[in-house]
TrEMBL record:
One GO cellular component, as annotated: cytoplasm
Keyword Cytoplasm in record: yes
Mapped WD repeat ranges: 54-88, 145-186
Gene Ontology molecular function terms on file: actin binding
Listed name of the protein: Coronin
Length: 243
């Protein structure tokens, strides 16, 4: 275990991740818009690490994710409406100045993205009210899921890759089977407040955890079972939001 200090990270207001790591690199939002900080996971002499900059977009980087199949492959999404895929170098080599692949612009700022956990080269991206599943090799969408009622706030693949769950500003949680239909197979009211929400699968199980806010601005966590998706199995209040 070790600390990595002296890093000046940015405070980007977005629904996506602000830091992600592969087995080779750590990526995080930098202070400048459109720039990610890139740090090698393994230190050099005496554990020292050099922070590099990846100038990847013309606007704020809203989300990014490393491929589970290639620890050097990084996908980034931005308010400039594009998704870009970058091949980071081995440690000690120069950071790339151009993306290997650009998708878009797509007509709306990119909010969230995530690589498919079991299919190499498949990526889900969410922009505005729409989720698109991409085939990166063909640079074409495999499918576009039905439009949500409001801005998408999070998406998450189930670990086996069969289902994708989303949370939305319309206060609903949805489950999709993209191979079967673009329509949601299940949906349920999630949290009463439309402030930021997040949805995550619990390991390989059929359960989900959502984080959001109640009508009284209490931050809360809910546990859901997709086999009985009409109501939460458990609700736990954490604290109260001042905003």
């Amino acid at each position: 275990q070790a600390w990595i200090g002296g890093i000046r990270a940015g405070s980007v207001a977005s629904c996506g991740n602000h830091v992600k790591a592969s087995s080779r690199w750590i990526a995080f939002n930098a202070e400048a818009a459109g720039v990610l900080g890139i740090v090698p996971l393994e230190g050099e002499d005496e554990g020292k690490r050099t922070v590099s900059q990846l100038c990847c977009h013309s606007d704020v980087v809203t989300d990014f994710d490393f491929s589970p199949f290639d620890q050097l492959l990084l996908a980034t999404g931005s308010a400039d409406e594009t998704v870009k895929v970058w091949r980071l170098p081995e440690s000690g080599q120069d950071i790339p100045s151009s993306a290997g692949l650009t998708l878009g612009p797509g007509g709306a700022p990119l909010d969230v993205l995530q690589f498919h956990p079991t299919a190499d080269g498949v990526l889900a991206s969410g922009a505005g009210k729409r989720v698109t599943i991409w085939d990166l090799e063909q640079q074409q969408p495999l499918t576009a899921l039905d439009s949500h009622g409001d801005q998408l706030q999070s998406l998450a693949w189930k670990r086996d890759g069969r289902l994708v769950g989303t949370s939305c500003k319309d206060k609903k949680l949805r489950i999709f089977d993209p191979r079967a239909s673009p329509a949601a197979s299940q949906s349920v009211p999630g949290h009463e407040n439309n402030k930021d929400s997040r949805l995550l699968w619990v390991g390989s199980s059929d359960c989900l955890i959502s984080v959001g806010f109640s009508q009284m601005r209490e931050r809360e966590v809910k546990l859901w079972d997709t086999r009985q998706f009409n109501k939460a199995m458990l609700t736990m209040a954490l604290d109260t939001s001042p905003g």
